[in-house]
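Re: that chain you flagged

S.,

Sorry for the slow reply, it's been a week of failed gels. I finally had a moment to sit down with the sequence you sent. For the record, here it is as I used it:
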Amino acid sequence: MRDEDEIREQYEFLEEQLESEEMTHAGVKEMFTYYKRALGWVLEEEHI
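Prediction finished late last night. Pasting the structure tokens below so you have them in one place:
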């Protein structure tokens, strides 16, 4: 299980990356992968 701090850290990382001026198609695709993983952690927590 992930704790709240880990999820918050992942969210802040995503936020920084999305604000970057250098977002490319590959970068955006990678960010969605991270986003889906973080969202999965949240949903996993809610089901337990």
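What I noticed first: The helical segments are 4-19, 25-47.

Talk soon,
D.
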